[in-house]
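HOLO CASE FILE
Compound: S-adenosylmethionine
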Amino acid sequence: MRRVLVVGVGCGHPDQVTVQAVRALDEADALLVVRKEGREALAAERQAIIDRHRTAGPLPTVALEDPHRPWRTDPDYDAAVARWQEQRAERWGRAIADAVPDGGAALFLAWGDPSLYESTLSIVREIDARGDVPIEIEVIPGVSALHALTARHAVPLNRVGRPVLVSPARLLTDGLPDGNDDVVLMLDVHGALASIPADGIDVYWGAYLGTDDELLVSGPLADVRDRIAELREEAAARKGWMFDIALLRRRVDGAAW
Ligand SMILES: C[S@@+](CC[C@H](N)C(=O)[O-])C[C@H]1O[C@@H](n2cnc3c(N)ncnc32)[C@H](O)[C@@H]1O
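Model generated. Tokens follow.
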């Protein structure tokens, strides 16, 4: 049996790595890193976390090549994602068996919190379900981007007794779904925030939260969204990638709180 540690490391600020996460880094026998084109900056961040916090000596790193991601062009999105996850589980399972001795621990570092829009944990659960490489899964929670956002704007995530929806941006292009007045928009690949119907909605927006490049804007969506679009475009061109998140809050009876 091998342990698989899935450790949340926060979403950009080095001090968001918890004491529990630091302990887990010291228990690992190998770090498994998925190589993603265009995400070299995040891979460097992960290595910096190991270099800064691990005291148990050098940690071998195993690079996992990601299978091709076909679903942007595949007509059957769900089937394409399921096939991709199976291929990943098979490759990752083999890599764990090769890199980690029986009784040892494999380490995955997850951006933010491992349970929020992170495929790592689903793939690790798939390895467990396949059963060909017996593993025991341990998850260490991390500071997610949505909590970094609400902290930086000093706003509560929810209003009293009301629900919150967390959604990929591509599902929000027609606006906030009925009955959802507090919506967290993530994974905005195509700048969907710029075209969401803005009437009566306030936005709390942040990009590269916790890093030296952090950007924050808040206000009525109709007033600030051009400014957000400009900042997004300029920063994405300069850095080569964009990570942003927004809390959209519909005024209910004129009230934001
Ligand atoms: C693949 S998801 C990972 C989420 C992560 N597990 C978490 O707990 O925040 C990536 C999305 O998270 C958001 N995100 C992650 N880090 C961020 C940061 N430092 N600043 C702003 N948004 C961030 C963006 O919406 C980005 O598209």
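CASE NOTES: The helical segments are 19-27, 40-53, 77-99, 119-130, 145-153, 221-239. The chain has a mean pLDDT of 92.
CLOSED: yes
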